[in-house]
Fold this sequence. Notes:
This protein has a domain at 35-93 and 198-272 and 370-430: 3-Layer(bba) Sandwich (FAD/NAD(P)-binding domain), CATH 3.50.50.60. The protein contains 10 helices and 20 strands. It has 447 residues and is α/β, with parallel strands linked by helices. It has a 10-stranded mixed sheet with strand order 1-2-18-14-17-16-15-6-8-7, sandwiched between helices. Strands 3, 4, 10, 11, 12, 13, 19 and 20 form an 8-stranded mixed sheet that branches. Helix 2 (62-73) packs parallel to helix 6 (197-210). It is globular and about 65 Å long. The chain has helices at residues 34-38, 62-73, 106-126, 146-158, 168-174, 197-210, 259-264, 335-348, 393-410, 427-430; strands spanning 14-15, 23-25, 52-58, 79-82, 98-99, 137-141, 164-166, 185-189, 193-194, 214-216, 221-226, 235-240, 245-253, 273-283, 293-296, 301-305, 311-315, 356-367, 374-377, 383-387.
Amino acid sequence: MRSSCRYIPETRKVFHLSCLRFTARIFVQHTPHPQTGQQHMSTGSTTTSTDTYDYVIVGGGLEGLAIAWGLTSRGEKSVLVIERDQLCGGMTGKSSGVVRAHYGTPSVAKMGWKGTKFFHDAPEILGDDCGFRNCGYMVAVGEENVGNLEATIAMQQGLGVDVEFIGGDKARELWPGLHVDDFAKIAYEPLGGRGDAPMLGMAFSVVARQQGAKIRQGTTVTGFTRESEADGARVTGVTLGDGSTVGAGQVILATGAWAAQLGETIGLDIPVRAQRAQLMLVDPGEPLPHVPVLSDLVSLQYLAGEPNGDILCGNSDHHDVHWADPDNYPNKADDDFIEWTIGKLMHRLPDMPNPGLTSTYAGCYDTTPDYNPIMGPSGIDGLFLAVGFSGHGFKIAPAVAEFVADLLLDGDSSDPDIPASDFRLSRFAEGDLTRSLHPYIGAGEMR
């Protein structure tokens, strides 16, 4: 996750960490990502209770906008996106924007690989580079995870992913000053890197509108309309906060961490919970060179270079899960998290000359019990789910657009490596979860 932030200089405080060579300048106010706030798109018309669309997408975050683009790219023009706030104004604005194919679930790895290739071609496809920087992606493990990494890389290579093993010297060449002595095996994706989730979402929205989609912002969906009051009756549209309705051939729920709340209004149990994630930005004390994203599965952290030279520090240890209300949660990192993360960072980059804490922030993943998305029919006719992306949504969004369009228009996935059954809602009730083939000790299903 990632966000823009600013200081209120007169209220800066010193956070004393006597055991660490680190000055912490505590972040005191969060501001939205610039892309989230600078583009407000008019709808061009006012929706009334008589409006009906073939597809109504609830949620104007990255996945909802990707789906709108995917449908309109297939020639569907009767598409409406409804967003309660502003486009990409929820958790999309806090995405860390990592581009990689490194997953232990083959279908998700293939989606990540499709996404990686998409970002390289985004200027031609969308007319926008979406902030993509091809800095590469590294993942490193200790001795206990060597076998899991080797098996995972073999699986990914079988899917066509461009990934290779590298040695410690090469890793230090890619990221100068990196402490690698406790890395037993390192893999590298040369085509990986970083992008910008709000920029990608806005690019999807622009092209989707050019292709016929309509978008409404500042409009809350409070529930669903149905053919009758009977259990299981078909969904025929959505109810808005002002009491009006919009009809739909299919309603597509793409509301991220808020999915379960809307599901409850129709008696549908959607197993998605908001998991709070804390991050921090560190000034290393000197300009950071062009470095790859690093998934450090020894220290259970991920590190990435920011355009301004800061280091983004995220957590890959998800044993101590913090569930949250996505509308009301602490929006900056806890002091204990800061101290813990600084210790891990200093171990991995011990030679930073004068590191300082620039800012911290927090967001929420929309997680499922197996940390993989739900994409498919809800079990109620007329309602389709695209939720629970569990932190993977940015890098797989281009593939999600294709996959969801395939399911809605053709009834099945067009890619045999991405079977629709992997993402069905019923897998949870059936006890047939979509798991990594070789989960890492420590990082587990977040890979």
